[in-house]
Specification:
Blueprint lengths: L5 H21 L7 H13 L8 H35 L12 H14 L5 H26 L6 H22 L6 H10 L7 H20 L1 H7 L3 H6 L4 H23 L5 H13 L3 H25 L7 H19 L7
Helix pairs in contact: 1-3, 1-13, 3-8, 3-11, 3-12, 3-13, 4-5, 4-6, 4-7, 4-11, 5-6, 5-11, 8-11, 8-13, 9-13, 12-13, 12-14, 13-14
């Protein structure tokens, strides 16, 4: 499926995302028919009064379903693109925000922000970002201390940092109030979009969209950075500056996602590989495809999470159940190609 017509493929997957969005906002305990959906949208933009029999559906549609689905699109695309950027910067197909410990650091920071006596919505985001950036810095520093340029060294360093922050998280859970603080921490760890509001969407959207735009604009430089520092310098680039910029931006996108929806694994690892297979390795084409596929994947997973049973399942469980087999398939398919 190499990119013979990249614009056509982007259009096809954009239509898939649009159709999935319409299906997702219709499904749930309160089913909204297509005719009612159209009426609600027309009434909103025309200012017409909604009929009494549609008031409950209107509340569910505008205040629960739409912000939740928009957040799934933002978080899915943000996590997927962050994974693609990490894989390009470190020239390692096994790298992702999860494996490098970024997600674990963000989760610990968010949990710590929740248990502090002066917690607030913005404090959780700041703590999440700070510890996420600390985690990736620790992974890179440990890999440089080992000073062996093997494909697996950075991944192993990330696993050390991941285990460290998971241990800190367990300590935090152990000493937390079991009635007030512990349920909130477990919510972050399992990942869920059930508490998303329009305020969360309005905070998340500018940063995610700006990050996606930045990565698309720097797609050509990502191509050069993926060749190595020597080649980048020979072409007049400053690899250290762009690497720091891209790491900080992608870590911030992961942090704000974790602080809003909890730890949602596997998206940053498997989606870039799928996008690369469809759009090719050039980041100018691969980054937009990664954003679309990440949005589709998480939106579909969240729709399953809230419709597959009477009790809602945390979306992190769905992404893990589907992401792990997909990654196993990718490992088998790419055996002997330099992955390991």
């Amino acid at each position: 499926m190499r990119s013979t017509n990249p614009k056509g493929k982007l259009l096809i997957f954009s239509l898939v995302l649009l159709i999935l969005f319409l299906v997702s906002v219709s499904m749930g305990r309160v089913f909204i028919r297509a005719s009612d959906l159209l009426t609600l949208v027309i009434n909103f933009f025309s200012g017409n009064e909604t009929a009494k029999d549609l008031l409950s559906r209107e509340l569910v549609f505008w205040w629960i379903r739409v912000p939740r689905c928009l957040m799934a699109i933002l978080v899915g695309s943000g996590l997927a693109i962050s994974g693609a950027v990490y894989q390009a910067l470190f020239r390692n197909p096994l790298v992702s925000p999860d494996i490098l410990g970024v997600s674990a650091g963000c989760t610990f920071g968010a949990a710590l922000g929740l248990v502090l006596p002066f917690d607030s919505f913005y404090l959780v985001h700041v703590m999440s970002f700070g510890f996420g950036l600390l985690a990736v810095s620790m992974s890179i520093a440990l890999a440089r201390m080992i000073a062996i340029k093997a494909v697996m060294i950075l991944v192993l360093a990330g696993m050390v940092v991941l285990s460290f922050f998971n241990a800190l998280l367990m300590i935090l859970k152990y000493f937390s109030d079991p009635y007030e603080q512990l349920p909130s921490i477990i919510f972050w760890v399992m990942g869920s979009l059930s508490r998303v509001t329009w305020e969360n969407v309005l905070v998340m959207a500018p940063f995610t969209l700006a990050g996606i735009l930045l990565f698309i604009l720097l797609g050509f430089r990502l191509n050069i950075l993926s060749l190595g520092d020597i080649q980048a310098r020979s072409l007049g680039m400053s690899p250290s500056f762009f690497r720091r910029l891209l790491i900080v931006t992608s870590s911030f996108m992961v942090a704000i996602s974790v602080a809003t929806c909890g730890q949602i694994a596997w998206i940053g690892l498997i989606i870039p590989h799928m996008a690369r297979a469809i759009a090719g390795p050039k980041h100018e084409r691969m980054i937009p495809m990664t954003a679309l596929l990440g949005a589709i994947f998480l939106l579909a997973a969240d729709t399953l999470a809230r419709t597959v049973s009477t009790a809602e399942i945390p979306v992190g469980i769905i992404t893990a159940l589907t992401g792990a087999p997909i990654f196993g398939y990718l490992m088998i398919k790419n055996r002997g190609s330099g992955w390991l």
